[in-house]
Give the backbone structure.
Amino acid sequence: MSTIEAIPSPGRKYRKEDLADLDPVLLGALLRERVHHNIEVPLYPVLLRDPLKPIPNFGLQAQLVYDEWVRRGLSQDSPDLKWVKRYIDIAAHIRKGEKPDIPELEDSMPEPFSEGEMKVVRKLIWERCSIRNWTDRPVPDELIEQILEAGRAAPVGCNLDAVRFVVLRTPEEKSMIWSDIPTDNAVIIVLCFDKRISETVGQDKMVPQNLGYDASAAGDHMLLMAHALGLGGVWLSKTVKSEHTEDTGKKFKELYGLPDHIEVALHIAVGWPASGIIKSKRLALSDMIITSV
Ligand SMILES: Cc1cc2nc3c(=O)[nH]c(=O)nc-3n(C[C@H](O)[C@H](O)[C@H](O)COP(=O)(O)O)c2cc1C
């Protein structure tokens, strides 16, 4: 059976003994990342080969991290670990040249939406708008949870899951966040990311912008869900320090007591709309498409 000694990662190598010292949050992120790049991404072209031939080193980097996870007795109950285990098992088949059983290849084949479903999708995409005035009606926790769940479903670079949420409700909590509009009646969700996760897999060297993009994708999902729930939301920028304003992310982190490795990316405010608004319009599509001449 093939084995490997170490996992190459931009700027460093992880040997077994390095993995033993890794914080479980970072080990979990490395595991998701290795399963993603070492199994999920290369797997689907391999499955199209007929006949399958053994690929002795397929997924071994992910396996090395998974073995350490199991050796330490870390939990395998979370949804991400169930996903990890699925791919770890599939990779074992590929190493032996066996066809793995993956019912999703047929069951989850993307299909065009029906006309009724498309109506809802268009309504959501084109009717979402930024709401900046809210009534004092409280927003139930269940709705905030649905909004957070929508953020959780957003795409994430390298499957790292480095985005973190902080929900602010009270005036004292919300006063930590600078905003160009009054947010007294809104709930504020702060979207942050854990920089250590990106550094662990070398993403900070290769694609440092991805962490901010992850948070943005989550924020957009959340605003769409808020709209569908009849709530109104708006993106609030995190400002950097200038002569006009202070660094809101820095102020929030200090007051909230967040460690250095947690970075604020953006905030969104959601609440019950006090009124509708004149919906903004975009440039004509022809002005947005750049063509070469
Ligand atoms: C990156 C980004 C930053 C934004 N920052 C703010 C902000 O600080 N305050 C605010 O009131 N709206 C903010 N917005 C909301 C935009 O003003 C709004 O999306 C835009 O005017 C288009 O209107 P619509 O959202 O109703 O389609 C931001 C939006 C984005 C994407």
In short: Residues 129-130, 132, 180-181, 234-237, 280 surround flavin mononucleotide (CB under 6 Å). The chain has two domains: 6-96, 115-271.
